[in-house]
Every structure is written in structure tokens, then in C-alpha cells.
Write a structure and sequence with these properties.
The structure is a homodimer of 374-residue chains.
Chain A lengths: L21 E5 H18 L2 E2 L9 H9 L5 E3 L2 H9 L4 E7 L4 H11 L3 E6 L2 H10 L6 E6 L13 H11 L3 E6 L10 H21 L6 E4 L2 H4 L9 E2 L9 H6 L9 E11 L8 E4 L3 H4 L20 E5 L4 E4 L12 E4 L4 H5 L4 E6 L2 E7 L8
Parallel strand pairs in A: 1-15, 2-9, 3-4, 4-5, 5-6, 6-7, 7-8, 8-9
Antiparallel strand pairs in A: 1-10, 10-11, 10-14, 11-13, 12-13, 15-16
Helix pairs in contact in A: 3-4, 5-6
Pfam families (chains A, B): Ala_racemase_N, D-ser_dehydrat
Protein name (chains A, B): D-TA family PLP-dependent enzyme
InterPro entries (chains A, B): Ala_racemase_N (IPR001608), D-amino_acid_metab_enzyme (IPR051466), D-ser_dehydrat-like_dom (IPR026956), D-ser_dehydrat-like_sf (IPR042208), PLP-binding_barrel (IPR029066)
Chain lengths: 374, 374
């Protein structure tokens, strides 16, 4: 399957004064992405609740909220705890949590500090919520499977689960989807339509059966940028703050929209003309780029200054980059910028990001929720 | 390509009292792996220098050294700094470092605290070493490409590089290989032979040309366990302390040798008999298991209690596990143990591991060198 053609800037990147490998964020590009996305959804009348698992950074969450986001989406209780500690007042844990005594106690504490909504996708999990979170004020949304076939129930199962919630006293008043199957070239628009249909059909069915559905939440970055009409009242894209090589190859963004790079140094160089071994090795591997690589991707990331180069292999601390025969190999010791395939993984691999403006480091931000898996 | 048959223990695993997802290490299995490997190489007269990038834990390094390891292998200067701070006296940074003023200063400081050896694979990098590390006492080994085609030079290039080192006064007195292409079913023995040949041929050629070669270092876990004869004076396996699903499917270990598991909870369950959707979702995804998946692997990890189950997909916080039609799906809320595909990535994703003995948590260890990429 052909990936979208990518137009590259011809401008060279001056070296950035960092110890490599380093994760650097261009604050002007970041701010532009935040502002533009906020404006797009304000104009459409859809509430924006960005997924903070992408960045895990308090300073970025604050910029999203300042630009008009209604709150944050997170994936885990510990992510919610980090952002609530930093003063965020409204979080949706868009995940079908299974409550035991330990994490239920944490959720009740969390709900004392901010508005909390959680996900559910079974009557068994609803029963746990009924017994553990009674009186906590935590609201609940049902996850729907819009075709991704991960968690979530089919639309036909929704009325039964809402009925069970009514019987057990759980504040189930919303539905949400994650259309992860939009991550393939040519798919985003069709998947956005499928998601809109599932949300619309389910909401209508539930309302017809007498249930209140006040929270209709959807979205991913690839579907969000399609502009497909949706009955969603809220959208939860995450990657749009930085974008990454997957989004570039899916056509969700241009090269100028990419706000985050991994800066690396050429440590090994093998220029054997005419062989398949015209390669360099940089000191950025899977422990900083992350090793996600969908089958349709051209490699393990992209090089903005070398569009025809391919990151063919990653070890933990080695990135192998193959060049076409007619392109000179970068020199040993040269600094290169790489766009990771999946930026959410990159952000989870380092403790801090370097903040740059006009290629100068102006500060650094802590990745406060790094490693918050539980 | 068929993967090696895996024999599984039929014994059920009792739940471990941890917040999931958690990384747990069985200290008895760990100790057995450390002791057995140390004994194997002692008997062969080969020095063992375990690669600490696998575990990044001071307490595990101390056990390896107590069992007779001559020092540690690491991949980065920052890993070396962590272990030197903890009292480790001898480290080999088995990596073709490119020295700038910043990391050269760190290396000189490091060499004030412990014995340091570094890797090189070009005359350009040798020139940097000559100018930056003169008088530091740091010794250098040349990386050879034994067929993995990542970093490292071909044997025929070695004499020229040794001659350049002699001219520039660099203490180049060793060679090393990393036979990463052994990571495929049926390959380890053949690759171990190829590595032995490259090390032997190069060492002979260098000695014939009058160069001293006192350090001949090879190895990876899959090749190390083959027992193939090698001229290596030193071996650098890493994963053998824990093993993982890759090693299990390569036949490097049995299920009883696996010391590390990711403990997860079933959060979503879809039991649609007769469809291809008999699946569960656990709360362990790529942010704890890591997303390495070689083409020959059966999935993104293995379940010791469910050998026919397949981890078909990972999102950041979701692991999708498909079961065969005739096997009951685990219940919602059940605790499952997963063996990650590549344990080095898992260790880099959490701050601490839970130490268990007889399925009871007896403590936890800090992953002191987590995130040490530079």
C-alpha cells in the first residue's frame, strides 16, 4: 500500500546544543498546533479534551487548557493523579478500568480533587463500580467498539448495559469510542464515518430506550483532522500537539507541523557504493524512538532533511539508516534529527524534553507522568 | 518459519499482591540463571562480562559480580556512570562512541573512578579518542561486523585501523562483535560459528601484523548458550538473567528459566464463540511490555499459563490476547502473567521491579539506569 507522499523542507537544520540522543520540542510549532486544533473544534462546536498520554507534561496540558480545552483525557489513574496534583480540574480516564480495593481507593481520593469520569465496557466492571465508587460523584461512559476490535462493546449491547447501570445506581451517562483502526493509509476518512455512525446509532438507540446520554466522545488524531461530521460532543486527539512519522505518512500533517524530534549523532558509517550497505548508524534506538512500526510504515521513523533515507532497523541504542545510492551519507559525528513513528512512546522513554525556539534550547520540561502505567 | 516448541508448566500462578501492571522478578530463578551461566563460562575458561543494559539494576549487577563476572558491559556513558557510582570497578562500553567535548569530559571523569574500555569502528572516531582521551588510561576495542551489518568493520579493515591507532597513540588492543543476527529460529548455532570465525580470522591477521590483541569479546544470549567453540576470551550476554519470550521461542531457555513477568489484569472480555473475536484485553500494553516484535515471533509476548493464547496487538495500555476456540477465556479482573518479547525494553519502562519469592513480594529494586540513553 503506498504511503502518502511527504513534502519536505529543503532547509538544513543547524545543530542543537544538547547531549545526544535528546528529545527536543519546538515551542512555536507546538503552540501553533495547540491553537489551530483548539480553533478548529471551537468552530465546529465540539469540545476538545486532548489525550495527555501523548505528552505527559504539565506545561503542555496548561497550554491546551488555556487554548480552550474542557479538560484532559488520560489512560490511567496515575496519569490522572499527576495532572490533578498540578491543578487540572477535569479528567476523563478513557479506559475500561477494573476496580479492586487498591485502585478504587485512589479513584475516590482523586474525585475529592477534581471532576472524574471513567470508562466501562461490561456489566461485571459496572458491578465493581457500583460497590466501590458509590457516592464518589464519579461519572461513567460506556466504551463502544467502532471497528477497532480492542475493548468496547457493540452498539446492540449498549442498552442492556445502561439498564444494568440504572439498576445498580451507577452514573452511566455517556459513550465513547477509540477508532484505532484509522491508523492505515487511506483509512482515516472511512473510519471517521464508521465511528460517527456507531456513535449516532448507539446514542439514538439509548435515548429511544429512555436513557440520558450527555457525553458522546470520540476521536483520534487521524480521524479528527478529516473534518467528517460526527454526533460526538467531545473529541480526544492526543498526537496533534507534536505529530509524528505515522501521522506524516498518514497525511494528518505536513513536515512543518512536526514539533518533536529526536536529535542523534552519527556513530558509524559504511559507504560501500553499489552494495545494499550504504548505511549509517545513529545513537538513537528503540530506547528513545520506541519500536512501534506498523506494516505500512516506511521504517522506524523519518529524517526531515533526508526524505529518501529509511530507518531500516532499531536496536536499543542503534538506529540503522540506509541511503539511496545517489545521496551522500552524512559524516561521522554529524547531528541528525529524526521524527519518531509514535511520539507517545518516545515521550515515555525520557525524563525531560528540551524546549527549543529558533533551534536554541530555551529550557526543559519534566515528563511528569512518564511511566504512569497503573 | 516454525518457532521452537515451548514446553509449559501446568502449574497455576497464584495472584501476586501488586498494583497492575507491574514488573515482577522471581529472585530464585534470577539467582539460578546468574549462577548457572557463571559456572558454564568458568568451566569453559571464558570471562563473563554481562551486559547490564538488560537489567539496569545495581542489586543484580552485584549478584553477577559476586558470581564471578569480571566486570560489566554497558551501552552508554550514563549507564557506566550509574554503575561506577554504585562501586562497580570495571566497565566496557561496547559501543562505537563518537566523542565531543561534553561526553569526552564525562569519560575522563569516569576513568578516574573505574577501569574503562570503549568501542570504536572508524579512524575518524579514533582521531577523536586520540585528541580527547589522551592520558586517561581508557582502553579501546575495535568493533567487528560478524554479519549483523549494524556497526563494526569487516575483518579486512581491522589492520588499517590498528595501524592508525598505533600512529595516533590510542590504546587499541581488543576486538569485539555483537552477533545480533542470531535472533531468528534455527540461527544461533550457525551465527555463533560465523562470529567465532570472524573473531579468529581477525585476531590472527592482527597478530601476524604485529599488533597486540589482548581483549577478544563476543556474544549474545542466543549464541552464548549454543556452546560453540570460540576464540573469544570474554563473553557479554545480557538477557540470560531474566530470559524473555524471544529467547523462549529461539530455544535459548525453558519456561522454568524465565525470571521476569509483567503481571496484568483482564479489563475487557469478548467471548463470541465461532468468531475470530474470542479475545481478552489486559491492562499491559506497549508502555510496559515494549513493542519489539520480530517477524518470526508468535506475538507480542507469551502467557506461561496459556501457551496457545496469542498476544496479537499492543496499544499503549491495552494488550489484546486471542484464545483458541476450545479454551475458556480468563474472567474479567483475573490476574495474568505475561512474558515480554524483549525484556531489555520492559526494564527501561518502569522505575522499580517487584522482587518475589514463592509468589510473595519480598521487596523492590530501583532500575537505577533506566532511561540512561546518552
Amino acid at each position: 500500500m503506498p504511503t502518502t507522499d511527504v513534502t519536505y523542507s529543503a532547509q538544513p537544520s543547524p545543530p542543537i546544543d544538547v547531549s545526544t540522543p535528546a528529545v527536543v520540542v519546538d515551542v512555536d510549532v507546538l503552540e501553533r498546533n495547540i491553537t489551530r486544533t483548539a480553533q478548529t473544534f471551537r468552530e465546529r462546536g465540539v469540545e476538545l479534551r486532548p489525550h495527555a498520554k501523548t505528552h505527559k507534561v504539565v506545561e503542555i496540558a496548561q497550554r491546551q487548557l488555556a487554548a480552550g480545552a474542557v479538560g484532559l483525557t488520560v489512560a490511567t489513574i496515575s496519569e490522572a493523579e499527576v495532572f490533578a496534583d498540578a491543578g487540572v480540574e477535569d479528567v476523563f480516564i478513557a479506559y475500561p478500568l477494573w476496580l479492586d480495593a487498591r485502585n478504587a481507593a485512589r479513584l475516590r481520593t482523586l474525585a475529592g480533587h477534581c471532576t472524574v469520569r471513567i470508562g466501562v465496557d461490561s456489566t461485571a466492571a459496572l458491578d465493581r463500580i457500583a460497590s466501590e465508587l458509590h457516592g464518589s460523584g464519579i461519572r461513567v461512559s460506556l466504551e463502544l467498539d467502532a471497528g477497532h476490535h480492542r475493548s468496547g462493546v457493540l452498539p446492540a449491547e449498549a442498552p442492556g448495559i445502561f439498564a444494568h447501570a440504572r439498576r445498580t445506581g451507577v452514573a452511566l451517562d455517556g459513550v465513547f469510542t477509540f477508532p484505532g483502526h484509522s491508523y492505515a493509509p487511506g483509512r482515516p476518512a472511512a473510519v471517521a464515518e464508521q465511528e460517527a455512525e456507531v456513535l449516532g446509532e448507539t446514542t439514538a438507540m439509548l435515548r429511544e430506550a429512555g436513557f440520558m446520554v450527555s457525553h458522546v466522545s470520540g476521536g483520534s488524531t487521524p480521524t479528527a483532522v478529516t473534518g467528517v461530521d460526527s454526533p460526538a460532543t467531545e473529541i480526544r486527539p492526543g498526537v496533534y500537539v507534536f505529530f509524528d512519522a505515522q501521522q506524516l505518512e498518514l497525511g494528518s500533517c505536513t513536515i512543518e507541523d512536526v514539533a518533536l524530534h529526536v536529535v542523534a549523532t552519527v556513530v558509524s558509517r559504511h559507504d560501500r557504493a553499489g552494495s545494499d550497505e550504504r548505511r549509517i548508524v545513529v545513537n538513537a534506538g528503540s530506547k528513545v524512538l520506541g519500536s512501534d512500526r506498523p506494516a505500512w510504515a516506511t521504517g522506524f521513523g523519518r529524517l526531515p532533511q533526508h526524505p529518501r533515507a529509511r530507518v531500516t532497523a532499531l536496536s536499543e541504542h542503534h538506529g540503522t539508516i540506509v541511503f539511496p545510492d545517489d545521496e551522500p551519507l552524512p559524516q561521522l559525528g554529524a547531528q541528525l534529527r529524526l521524527i519518531p513513528n509514535h511520539v507517545c512512546l518516545t515521550m515515555n522513554l525520557v525524563d525531560r524534553i528540551q524546549v527549543v525556539q529558533d533551534d536554541q534550547v530555551i529550557g526543559s520540561w519534566e515528563i511528569a507522568a512518564r511511566g504512569c502505567n497503573d
